[in-house]
Amino acid sequence: MAFFHLFPLRNCHVKTADATRPGDILTGMRILVVEDEKQIAGFVRKGLEEQGFKVDISHNGDEGYELAKSRPYDVLVLDIMLPGRDGLSIVNNLRKQRNPVPVILLTARSELDERVEGLDAGADDYLTKPFFVEELVARIRAVARRRDGESGNKVQIADLQLDLLSREAERGGRTIKLTAREFDLLAYLMRSPGRVYTRTQILEHVWGFNFDPNTNLVDVHIQRLRKKITAGDEASLIETVRGVGYRMVKEEA
Ligand code: CA
Fold this sequence. Notes:
CATH topology of the largest domain: Rossmann fold
CATH class of the largest domain: Alpha Beta
Structural class: alpha/beta
Radius of gyration: 18 Å
Strand content: 15-25%
Number of domains: 2
Largest sheet: 5 strands, parallel
Shape: globular
Oligomer: single chain
Strand order of the largest sheet: 2-1-3-4-5
Order of helices and strands: HEHEHEHEHEHEEEEHEHHEE
CATH superfamily of the largest domain: Response regulator
Helix content: 25-40%
Bound molecules: calcium ion
C-alpha cells in the first residue's frame, strides 16, 4: 500500500511521444480494467483515457468476468486478488472458452506463483505493483500490436512460428518441443524482433523474480533453445549482443 502514493506524482506525465494517431490500431481501443483498489483503478483510468483509450472499470471479479465475456474488449487489465472471482480464474475461464482477448495481470510483489500461474493460464503479460501508468500503456500497445500483427495468436519470425494459445512451436513444418520456460523465453524475444533484452530483463520476465545477476540461467536456456529451433543449415534466429543480452533477428521488410 505504501507505494501507491507514487502514482499521482507520475500519472499526469504520461508520455505522448508515441501517442495515438489517426489510423493507429490503438485509436478507440476499449480496455476493461478489473481492479478493486479504487485509487489504482482511478489513476489507471485517467492515464489510459489521456492516451485515447476507452476505459471500463470494474471493482469486482464476478462483474468483471461477465463484462469480459459479454463485450468485445481489445485488452483486459486484471488485478489478481479481487472480491468475487480472482484474476487468474477470469483468464482461465476465458481461455477455456477460447476467448483470445489479450490479458495483462496486475500482481503484487508477493504473488510470484500467481504470476507464473497467470502466464501458464494464458495471460499475455503482467505488471508488478507499483507501476507507472506509462508502462501499462506500453504493455497494452505491445499486446494489442501483437494481436493485430498475428493471425489469431501466432507470432512468426522467418519460418519459425509460435502459437501463443496452444503454446506450440514449429519451424519449417516441423514441430518443436519446448518446455514451458523455453516457450516463454522464445515468446518474449519474438514479440519484439530486433530489440535487445538484457539478461536481467529476461530473468525478471520469464522467471518472474530476481536471481543472482551472475547466474547463467538465461545463457543456458538460450543455448538449449537455439539447438532446438535450429536444424541442419537453418539460420540461427537468436543473436547474442555481446555484453548486453539477446535478441531475435529482425527480418527486412
Ligand atoms: Ca486487489
